[in-house]
Structure formats: structure tokens, C-alpha cells
Amino acid sequence: MSHSPQRTLRIGTRGSALALWQAHHVEALIKSQPGAPPVELVRIKTEGDVRTDVPLWQIGGRAFFTKEIDKALLGNDIDIAVHSLKDLATVLEPGIELAAALEREDPRDALISRTGSPLADLPCGARVGTSSLRRRAFVARLRPDLQLLELRGNVPTRIEKLQNGDFDAIILASAGLRRLGLDGHISELLSLEEFPPAVSQGAIGVCMRSADAEVGRWLQKLDDRASRLATTAERALLRRLEGGCQVPLGAIGALVDRDTLTLHAAVCALDGTRMLRAEAQIAATPDNAVSLGQKVAEDLLSQGAAGLIANERTARSLAVERP
């Protein structure tokens, strides 16, 4: 009996060094399975790649790094979309599903300083570069004397800007640095307690068309239970608070043992003056992960998180309107 040739699976990815690392990693995981189909990478330019002149929080809308890739997936130009899970909207486009959350890398933020000093030892007025409102808020809370400056560009570009003297320190996700073999630059890993990471930071998300059982068969083996449960809780929290990547919210979910899932989250005013925290735990099941995220969100909302987030949005829209 003759077999028809296997269809080649096309993986859609951004073109940055980190995005390509992630896509090649998924390619390798698929190819390692017995009888795996051929795989090819398709590079796609996204709005976030094109608009490097403006801070992301000033651009209206969401999904800056994923929209164009989702469009290619729905248009059948690719079969698999690989994303940093933290870039993925909490509500996916109809017809797309998150097939796998890969085993998570270290979710912490990393400080890289020119002198190797940790955050606490940076000199008064030191220039710290970050493109994230969350990182700005937590730095302002811990070190209100530091000067916070906008930093865009891919990981190697950001490190180069630091080395060129544009900044005294920068903050990046440690996961990206590790994946690119640049973790030797890290001066300090910031604590999950004081500096909770972005929702799903360190996890890679792999999406496919909902009805594509043939692709699903290769991706289901890539789904990591601990990563999936933790990020499901974190994403449910973010969805309830109605934030994109432009909310000063940090959250970290974790499996304490095989049966218990915990979630800790904090929302911080941009100037660092107010910070709200909440945490809870629950028996570790997929449905419970969603409930846990919603429960922690409700706790933050009852403390006044909605007002705090609304204040930040108003302040930002005024900042954008100013000449």
C-alpha cells in the first residue's frame, strides 16, 4: 500500500534572533518525534517589528507581535505559529487555538548594568532602559531616584545600546538572554516577589488552526503540564483585568507539587507609590487554573486595581497627546 507524501508543516515566526531560536526549537521538537513530517520556517514581519520609533504603550490596540502571524495562519499560508506566550492576546482569534505551552524557561527579569552592580547599588540618578510599563512601575517602587528611559529593539540591539553608554542599566527577560546564550551579561536576577514578571514570561506558545487535527497530533506532545497550568492562570488573571502588555501588572503561577497550583500577582502605579498584591492556590486542574486567575483578579479589583489601571491609562493618553 503506497503512502501519500507527508505535507510539509510551515512554521510562522518573526525574524528576530530570539523568535528564530524559538521557531527552530519547536521545529527540533517536532522532528524528534517518530515519523515526523518535513518542517519549514516562514518569516513574517509584524507591526511591532516595523514600528520601532514609538514606545509600544503609545500605539493603540494590541497584539503588535502576533496579528500578522495569526492572519497568515487563518489564511492557510502557515500551519503553526510560534510566539513568546507573553505577546499573545488573552483572547485568541476565532479559529485559532493554543496547542502547546512549552516547558518554561526562568520567568524572572534580569538587570544588566555596565558596572555589574545590582539594582540596589546603582548610583542615584542612573539611567535605566526598559520598554515595559510593568518594569518601569516596579523600578520606580524600589528605586524612585533612578531615571527611566525608553528602550526598544531586539535583545542584542538593547545590549549594544547599554555597552555604547546610552544607559547605565537595562532590564530584560532572563529567558531570552539564556536562549541566545547572552546570560553571561546578567548582573542580577530580580526576585519574583519584589519584581513579578509579565504574564507568561519565559514560556513559548504554539498555535494552530482549531480544526487542523493533523498538526495537532504533532503539537500535543509539546504541551508541558506545569507551564500550561501556570500560564493559563496568569492569562485568565490578565483577561479579567482587561490588560494588554500595557498594564503595570506582574504575575507568576507555579505548581508547588503535582497537585497544587499557586498564583501571585501585583499591580503597581507607574510612579511606584501604590502597589496592590494578591495570591491564592487551588487544586491543579485546567479548569481550576482559569478559576484561580479570575479569583486573584477579583481580589486585586476589590483592592482598587481597576482605578489604578484606569489612572495609568489616563496619564498615558495625556502624555501621548502632549506635543
Summarize this entry quickly.
The protein has 323 residues and is an alpha/beta fold. It is built from 10 helices and 13 strands.
General description of the model:
- Helix 8 runs parallel beside helix 9.
- The N and C termini lie far apart (71 Å).
- The chain folds into 3 domains: 124 residues, Periplasmic binding protein-like II (D-Maltodextrin-Binding Protein, domain 2), CATH 3.40.190; 81 residues, 3-Layer(aba) Sandwich (D-Maltodextrin-Binding Protein, domain 2); 99 residues, Porphobilinogen deaminase, C-terminal domain (Double Stranded RNA Binding Domain, 2-Layer Sandwich).
- About 2% of the residues have low confidence.
- The strands form 3 sheets. A 5-stranded mixed β-sheet has the order 2-1-3-10-4, sandwiched between helices. It has a 5-stranded mixed β-sheet with strand order 7-6-8-5-9, sandwiched between helices.
- The chain is globular and about 65 Å long.
- A hairpin with a 6-residue loop joins strand 12 and strand 13.
- By secondary structure, it is α/β, with parallel strands linked by helices.
- It is built from 10 helices and 13 strands.
Strand order of the largest sheet: 2-1-3-10-4
Number of strands: 13
Number of distinct helices: 10
Structural class: alpha/beta
Multimeric state: single chain
* CATH homologous superfamily descriptor of the largest domain: Periplasmic binding protein-like II
Q: Just give the CATH class of the largest domain.
A: Alpha Beta
The assigned CATH architecture of the largest domain is 3-Layer(aba) Sandwich
Mean pLDDT, all residues: 89
Indicate the CATH topology of the largest domain.
D-Maltodextrin-Binding Protein, domain 2
Any idea how many domains? 3
How much strand? 15-25%
- What is the overall shape? globular
Percent range of helical residues? 25-40%
Main sheet makeup: 5 strands, mixed
**Poorly predicted spans:** 56-61
Order of helices and strands: EHEHHEEEEHEHEHEEHHEEEHH
Radius of gyration: 20 Å
First-residue to last-residue Cα separation: 71 Å
